[in-house]
């Protein structure tokens, strides 16, 4: 790789553009904190920054092409290019190629190496381009600055990586093997987030329910025990977690949904397909039936739990009858919301070279039918919520004066009018349902 000949000006401002999952959002925030520690300020809204970090996602479709077109478009007001860093999963998967194809990129940094961004930047300003896609397990978290972000809702990465190797998925290659952050580090970070104003924490991991560690007494702990420990933090009112794999669910986590008031009644549990042959070809290692039985256990301990999932249509070889099994599963579960995708062949994954790839128009038609069912259930879930009273955590102002937006315990967006502040937990009655949000009517003043 050729070093750049011209030294660059040290950047005064930065912008991190994160794509994809919530973990990328978390990583993006942490990269921002690292840069801020080095005296680089976030660029003002509407202005291009001196340093732009593209925090990329590789999970579906033409991810790399999008990165190249984003790089091409980046320009400062004076027509020059900002310093560009490519981070995230495309950086991990295609780092060398990016360096070759995009001479304006100064740094390529993988998801496990971004704590080294400030050092790479020092090199970049001297005109040396740098790539770091090492996967040094846990080192990253130890060398990140302490959390200071002020927000009523916060993410906390507890686990990273994936050992499941679903045959369609790039994550095991881009994020590496499953690792769990130590219990005491997580409790410390959770306290710091609450000190900085967080009332809701979402625990993150590619397989968050595979988290395991040792508690303060040296006893083995899983996600259920970790949730109970975090729930003891005064001032923290809500806990969520995402994303889980059906095969890592243990009794303690299911039990926590029945016994912890702070654990919200919401479960995102991807199934991908409702057909056992397809599930086997995907290497999911569970059946439709075992998945349904698992959901039943959650519903037994927490009858009002809202269920969410992920679906892929058009996996190689999927027949019409097999696709209809997915529709039947949806009819049985009745999700409150869900995410659905056309299968996208990812380079280097086993499914990309399987026979019987499905034609794009067949995939589109199946996705359309599947989403019609999911929408039907989402609307029904929202309509069934009308008349309930619940707490809303206020996250931001609405479009009109006096209007506020927040989330219900079931992760629905709720808006209401009246006296409130960001970070309040407000008791409302849900009075009107739309497909994507509900209207609330204020019942009592904020619970301080
Ligand atoms: N094609 C389509 N969807 C995919 N997902 C992961 N890999 C692919 C792929 N190759 C979806 C799965 C997963 C979600 C994060 O993205 O549904 O749960
Ligand atoms: Fe990808 Fe499967 Fe791992 Fe989820 S469990 S990240 S879909 S390989």
> Ranges with pLDDT <50 over ≥5 residues?
none
CATH homology superfamily of the domain at 13-136: Methylthiotransferase, N-terminal domain
The CATH class assignment of the domain at 13-136 is Alpha Beta
Biggest pleated sheet: 6 strands, parallel
- The total count of helices amounts to 13
The largest sheet has its strands arranged as: 2-1-3-4-5-6
Which features would summarize this protein structure in a list?
448 residues, alpha/beta, Rossmann fold, OB fold (Dihydrolipoamide Acetyltransferase, E2P), six-stranded parallel sheet, five-stranded mixed β-barrel, 13 helices, binds 5'-deoxyadenosine, binds iron/sulfur cluster
Topology, pairings included?
Layout: E1 13-18, H1 22-37, E2 41-42, E3 51-56, H2 63-73, E4 83-87, H3 88-101, E5 105-109, H4 117-125, E6 130-132, H5 139-142, E7 153-157, E8 159-160, H6 171-174, E9 179-180, H7 183-195, E10 200-204, E11 212-214, E12 220-222, H8 223-231, E13 238-242, H9 251-259, E14 266-268, H10 276-281, H11 288-301, E15 306-313, H12 320-333, E16 337-342, H13 360-385, E17 389-397, E18 403-407, E19 413-417, E20 425-433, E21 437-442
Parallel strand pairs: 1-2, 1-3, 3-4, 4-5, 5-6, 7-10, 10-13, 14-15, 15-16, 19-21
Antiparallel strand pairs: 8-9, 11-12, 17-18, 17-20, 18-19, 20-21
Helix pairs in contact: 2-3, 8-9, 12-13
